[in-house]
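User: Show me a protein chain along with its predicted structure.
Assistant: Here is one chain, sequence first, then structure tokens.
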Amino acid sequence: MIPPIRSIYSSSSFKWWVYVTVATGTAITVAEQTASSIVIPKISEEFGADIATAQWMPITYMLIVCTLMMPAAKIVDYFGQRRVWIGGLYVLAFASLFIAFSQSFSMILVGKVIMALGASAVQANGIAMMASSFPEHERGKAMGLHMTAVGVGAVGGPLVGGIDSLFDWRAVFIFVGIFQLVANVIAMLVLTDKGRKKVEADLVESRKFDWRGVLLSMCFLIAFMLSVSLGNKLGWFSLFVLGGLGISIVILIIFIFEENKSSNPLLPLYLFRIKSFSLGSLARFLCFMAGSSVFFLLPFFLVSGVGMTTARAATYMLPSAVTIALFGPFSGRIADRIGNKLPSLIGMSCSTLAMYIFSTITLDSNPLIISVAAALSGTGLSIFMAPNTTSIMGEIDRAHYGVISAFMNLTRNSAHIVGIAIPTAVVVLVMSNLGYEADLSDPQKLIDLGLRTSYVLGMQRAFQMSLFFMVLAMVVTGLVPKTQIPSFNPDDKRYDR
């Protein structure tokens, strides 16, 4: 039973109620993303979409999220974390149910666009709400706990995705939509206006909206991400792709110029002069870019290549989610005690080893090897993320927590787009050179051993490329300065609830 609202906000346990709220919303959002990736092969089969077309399910979602992430952080300054968080969850629930009753692949993509609108509002808030509710000496613990929420969602994703085997892929999105409404009920009970003021204290210095920065950032992200995403369809050296990339560079230069002039920039560019922020963000981008190839391609390998059911495929991917949930809190607490450097490097080492294993699997490989690699991948990510987040936020003023929260999620989502588009291009290219189309939607075609073998070979090459970027991420992580561990000040009243 939830205590009366007044007792929540008058007690020292307020930070934990904020955590419950953020964790619930985060977990179900992550579960939806993971479950979606598992059922993509089934959706592709029903609507006759090849792999190059199927990639637009996650890419459409992440493209819109990336575009709206930074503006969403500023919108929070006007409407408050409570309203934006609750509104985002409502939109997510509607989108999930919309996808569940879609009658074409185009309708599914529309549903993904709607879902992205809600996700941008939720993701722009979560880390900021956690960081501003926990004292600085517990920041690592807070980020570790946030990783636990991510891990629980990731564990739930394969389990929810497995519903497809009992009912239909549509049941997955119905289930997710219902639980998103439950998460919203929790948020409405906990995040009252009184609580919102407490969470947002010291976060906003000015409410002047940087419209130029918003428009330029949106135009840059659309031009860049769309160009990268269409590379597989139009060709990487097509006029549209090369022109789009060129336009994005020009817009980026203009954006930097405008932000330097702005009195209240969308993204304070001086932050990139902080070594821990810039290098930590780069390591984060490279890590997620490399890992995204597994996120997207592995379900196709297990379902279309090996011939597993979605439920069985989900069980082999489950260890990744379990280890994220298990190790997240510990990595955060360790980072609070010894700093960010060593935990981050240990995490990256585990992720690199996992990627090496993925790059060696074949149709004849023991599926248990995939589970081992998945467990290593989840362990590495959980150990890396909390200290990495601590590094990025370590020297940042609390007034910028909202923007930085959005920027970190922007980094992750943009990395996902690049990390899906480029490895998919590698798979398509390898299969094409061997005389096969990258179409795994027709079950009759999958009888052809040559088709499946060519796909696995393409996947190996994609994972080998991802391995290179994971190694690079580890090198950059080694260059991130060790953070100063903040000491506890009992006289600091900023966090009293």
